[in-house]
């Protein structure tokens, strides 16, 4: 599966409308921001269809992966957008990482922690916020927003000097990022 895929999920009270651009998308955020509500709505629609009162529009099938039988379930999921809610500890395993590499699915994972075994881009880490497009007394429209943005070099320029703890990769990274605009020195591990 390649390219961008749009997903819209809504009921009478709430709506989520977002695009999935890469095979791994991470949703993070505080409690009560709508992460689990999104997953629950997709699961309800998957189990009961339109009778659930939920409308789901996507060019790919949207499914939920959870529980102890995740291996068996994943083996039969193809060409789909797979949603995984937080609390599923298997997402942190090397076995899960190896398993999804050989699939043609896109994965949307809700977690508050980093997943070191998965190669996801910081450009694909999102939060959910109420955009208020439908007003406070009507339907709530939720949207994804980037948590991290590449290319915010102007914010770094407010500093006169950066001191890196080491003289290797950390120092080399900051030295290349700030170029000649800011003085970059190494503490050589003495901090």
Summarize the structure.
The chain is α/β, with parallel strands linked by helices and 191 residues long.
Helix and strand topology:
Elements: E1 5-10, E2 14-20, E3 24-27, H1 35-48, E4 55-58, E5 61-64, H2 70-76, E6 80-84, H3 94-101, E7 106-110, E8 125-130, E9 140-146, H4 153-156, E10 161-164, H5 169-178, E11 183-186
Parallel strand pairs: 2-9, 3-7, 3-8, 5-6, 6-7, 10-11
Antiparallel strand pairs: 1-2, 1-4, 8-9
Structure in words:
With 191 residues, the chain is an alpha/beta fold. It has 2 domains: 5-146; 153-186, no CATH class. It has 5 helices and 11 strands; from the N terminus they run βββαββαβαβββαβαβ. It has helices at 35-48, 70-76, 94-101, 153-156, 169-178, and strands at 5-10, 14-20, 24-27, 55-58, 61-64, 80-84, 106-110, 125-130, 140-146, 161-164, 183-186. β5, α2 and β6 (80-84) form a beta-alpha-beta unit. The longest helix has 14 residues, at 35-48. It is elongated, with a radius of gyration of 20 Å. The termini are far apart.
Outline the biggest β-sheet: 9 strands, mixed
Distance between the termini: 47 Å
Number of strands: 11
Number of domains: 2
- Please state the average pLDDT score: 82
SS strand fraction: 25-35%
- Major beta sheet, strand line-up: 4-1-2-9-8-3-7-6-5
Coarse structural class: alpha/beta
C-alpha-based Rg, rounded: 20 Å
